[in-house]
Specification:
This protein has one domain. The chain contains nine helices and no strands. The model has no long low-confidence stretch (mean pLDDT 93). The protein has 190 residues and is mostly helical. The longest helix is centred in the middle third of the chain and has 29 residues.
């Protein structure tokens, strides 16, 4: 089974996700910079979510480039990942409108936690299909960043009920951890 359609479909869904997120942003009613102040939470949540979706897109590209084979299990695991990512515009909008509220902040993190779990399941399906000696297996390694991210998301979700800004800081930290390009795949391919 070729992976070209999987990559094209995933790219299209991710492009739609980003488009929906930006359409949720509303223009300010004023004409000066002060008019942007009430929109700051929505703009900041959009920026963070855009970075997250970009990280997923970038790493998805690298992971599929390292994989040689896919199968039905990989297709379903990929759809599972895309499902959770498709909820990002909804949670981004909600947390942007209610930045100090615990429930939107926790659910925002919950969507990214589940996206991370879906990522790990996709990775596992690809590893199963490509084998333990594959280029993909060498590139993935132990995936400490993925496991650390899941722990940080879980902590942030709980801390959202104590102080939402602490959870927000952890979400930014996880994005920063992944924003630094992951060279595992590039090194393995070289």
């Amino acid at each position: 089974m070729g992976k070209g359609r999987l990559e094209a479909f995933s790219d299209g869904v991710i492009a739609v996700i980003i488009t929906i997120m930006v359409l949720e942003l509303k223009a300010p009613h004023g004409q000066d910079l002060a008019a942007l102040a009430p929109l700051a939470p929505a703009l900041l949540s959009y920026c963070l979510s855009f970075v997250y979706v970009g990280i997923y897109w970038n790493n998805h590209h690298h992971m599929l480039h390292a994989a040689q084979h896919i199968d039905g299990r990989v297709l379903w695991a990929n759809l599972h990942l895309l499902f959770w990512l498709s909820l990002v515009p909804f949670t981004t909008s909600w947390v942007g409108e209610r930045p100090a509220a615990a429930i939107p902040t926790a659910i925002y993190g919950g969507v990214f936690l589940m996206s991370g779990v879906a990522w790990l399941l996709l990775q596992r399906a690809l590893l199963r299909r490509n084998g333990p000696e594959s280029l993909l297996a060498r590139a993935v390694g132990r995936d400490l960043k993925g496991k650390l991210s899941a722990l940080l998301y879980a902590a942030a979700i709980l801390l959202a009920f104590v102080r939402p800004w602490i959870a927000d800081a952890i979400y930014v930290l996880v994005a920063l951890i992944w924003f630094v390009p992951d060279r595992r795949f590039e090194r393995a391919i070289e």
